[in-house]
Write a structure and sequence with these properties.
With about 400 residues, this protein is mostly beta strands. The protein is built from 2 helices and 20 strands. The protein is globular and about 55 Å long.
Length: about 400
């Protein structure tokens, strides 16, 4: 572990001194977490976490750039529980630690063609909350601070005219030790932009990869087709949909992940309202059975953000699941203490019918999820973020 850390830091500083156009930046988060436990969880628990994301960028003349990012973590208490399953985590007397390579890729730029290759993010769709089209980097609005994961792959973008982008991409299999390429994904996308609207069309094919008892594999291959639209009319409108066809699973409507919503600002932009609905099919990109985060069908996110001044704002959010009548309300207050340093206090309080009636109707967003015996009634995080 120590050897890996030394190698990564050596690479960072070697790049810094060898290339005059290299920049290093990052964030440092210091977080204190508290939780009121439900079920088999302790009645009260706390956690401490120190997290740093170090990023570097090196330009090689005019046509090439190398990007990289490394996550460094040290945690104790409930914050250390997530590190215990990581192969690179190590223990000490009062903390657990881990290092994670987050990004490492290069970009070659031409007059009308760009090529990217390496460990990078391949984002798709315009959805603000759920992101059905973003099937390579599934989002989870329950954990809004989580950084989208990267994939090992490549992409080539062609810009035949202004505001038009054609993209071809490849992503390696989900199983890192797959040696025959089964499960690899190839695809094409097109983005077209106008003054007040944008449209993206997407198609991807996953090479046949038959895994016994897995919902996201098929001996016939998996097809994905999507459409995403955003428009600035009276309100900011967004629609994002991705259909996954798995012949072996005989997918029909259950292969669809569809979201639609709007945002609107009041009071000169000080108050912003955001609402977005999600239909989540059982075999869709947002389903927990295929790598997503959700197990029911119908969800709604509603949120309000109010800016008191240039330094302080407050956000209220509510995720609702209509299938089992469960809710996850949240509140977050952000204050910029001074330039580059922000204090954030956030809290969540899971709710479902069993919490009030004790009738056994546990909800997906409730204190104790169905099929589990531990959870929480209340979560609170206090974080100081330093940007450098």
């Amino acid at each position: 572990m120590k050897r890996i850390i030394c190698i990564c830091l050596t690479v960072l500083f070697t790049n810094y001194f060898l290339f005059a156009q290299t920049t290093v930046s990052g964030v440092l988060d210091s977080t204190v977490s508290m939780m009121a436990g439900a079920g088999d969880s302790p009645d009260f628990s706390f956690g401490l976490e120190e997290y740093a994301n170090l990023r570097f960028q090196s330009r090689l003349r005019e046509g090439a750039t190398v990007y990289g990012a490394v996550n460094l973590l040290a945690a104790a208490g409930i914050s250390a529980m997530g590190l215990s399953a990581m192969d690179l985590s190590i223990g000490s007397e009062n903390f657990a630690a881990a290092i994670e390579l987050e990004r490492l890729y290069f970009r070659l730029r031409g007059d009308h063609i760009d090529f990217n290759g390496g460990l990078m993010r391949l984002p798709f769709g315009y959805g603000q909350v759920w992101g059905p089209s973003d099937f390579l980097n599934p989002r989870n609005p329950i954990k809004p601070d989580a950084r989208p994961r990267a994939v090992l792959g490549a992409s080539a973008a062609w810009y035949p005219i202004d505001e038009l982008k054609l993209l071809g991409f490849f992503a390696s299999p989900r199983n890192a030790f797959e040696m025959e390429g089964k499960g690899s994904k190839f695809g094409l996308s097109m983005d077209r932009h106008w003054d007040r609207a944008s449209v993206q069309a997407l198609y991807s094919f996953e090479i046949p990869n038959e895994i016994p008892f897995a919902d996201n594999s098929s001996k016939y291959g998996i097809h994905r087709a999507g459409l995403s639209v955003k428009a600035d009319i009276v309100v900011g409108f967004v629609m994002d949909a991705l259909y996954t066809y798995n012949h072996e699973a005989k997918t029909k409507l259950d292969g669809l992940s569809f979201s639609a919503g709007f945002d609107y600002s009041f009071l000169g932009g000080d108050l912003i309202i955001l609402a977005e609905y999600l239909y989540n099919g059982e075999y869709s990109s947002t389903s927990i059975y295929t790598g997503g985060s959700f197990s029911n069908n119908h969800y709604l996110y509603t949120g309000f953000t109010y800016s008191f001044n240039d330094f302080t704002n407050m956000s209220l959010g509510l995720i609702s699941c209509f299938d089992d009548i469960s809710f996850l309300p949240s509140v977050s207050v952000n204050h910029e203490m001074f330039q580059g340093v922000t204090l954030t206090i956030s809290a969540q309080a899971p709710l479902d019918r069993d919490l009030f009636k004790k009738d056994g109707n546990k909800g997906e967003l409730g204190p104790i999820r169905p099929g589990t015996s531990a959870g929480s009634y209340f979560n609170c995080n206090t974080r100081v973020r330093i940007r450098f």
